[in-house]
Amino acid sequence: MTILCDYGNRYQSKLFNPDFLKSKGLPLPAYLAKRTEIAVPYETTA
Amino acid sequence: MTVHPSVLEAIGNTPLIKLKGASEATGSTILGKAEFLNPGQSVKDRAALYIIRDAEKQGLLRPGGVIVEGTAGNTGIGLTLVAKALGYRTVIVIPETQSQEKKDALKLLGAELVEVPAVPYKNPNNYVKVSGRLAEQLAKTEPNGAIWANQFDNVANRQAHIETTAKEIWDDTNGKVDGFICSVGSGGTLAGVAMGLHAFNKDIKIGIADPEGAALYEFYKNGELKSSGSSITEGIGQGRITASTSSNMRACASAAPRPSTSPARFVSPGISVPDIRS
Known about the structure:
Oligomer: heterodimer
Strand order of the largest sheet of chain B: 5-4-3-6
Shape of chain B: globular
Order of helices and strands of chain B: EHEHEHEHEHEHEHEHHH
Strand content of chain A: under 5%
Structural class of chain B: alpha/beta
Shape of chain A: elongated
Helix content of chain A: 10-25%
Low-confidence stretches of chain A: none
Radius of gyration of chain B: 18 Å
Strand content of chain B: 5-15%
Mean pLDDT of chain A: 89
Largest sheet of chain B: 4 strands, parallel
Mean pLDDT of chain B: 85
Order of helices and strands of chain A: HH
Helix content of chain B: 25-40%
Number of helices of chain B: 10
């Protein structure tokens, strides 16, 4: 049993912020570091 | 004692909250259904759950499969929440002009973000259209399937409200609800709740709270899809008849109280997509 206190989103600028984590020498979770490699299907427009 | 087997069972069954100021001002009991208490903090969790479950039933998704949607807000959050709970991935296409807060919220939930330039809906590179093509592209390559959630024209969105939202409102008011009103983005909430409530009692009045100058207000008032001006609202102010609203059009039109006072006063903070569709 444990407590789910809040959404955590009020810590976005710190605990979930890559720049903040880097500044403290803390590891960056993969899901925050990842950039998409998906090719976007743009269409040529006039 | 209730133990939910997953976060998905925490979606829905939201309480009705009496709006004191509005009730006093009107002399009627005005209730608000607290959809912000859903796990993804918006009404869109319901649509997300039904859209994904519907795709599973059709055999379009297997564990590890991908859900694609063009959305700048709550739908992406709801889809990602449900997807992650069920072992799927989401690819969310958003206009790059969206706020950092929205991008961060989606990323934190584990969505894969594809940012595209913000262009009007008629442009083939509008984010909603890009998301449709991207889903098609991924459906060919993803071994576990890829679907386009397509909240605007996917009637599973509306079905969520027929089966859950409307029934909850009916049950929690002991069948005493006289009328229901909300704004329209995809139209899923309004049409679904209207259809669900009308199955219990066809005399329940249904209204649309549309920003002044928006197309649906004109449509129900003057019979013409015509919009004018611009809007700062996000996700509401639909310019076309979506699949969610289409088959229910007549019922809505006849049941809708002609908005004689300006519906522009009803500005909803609910967010799903930015108003760049025209």
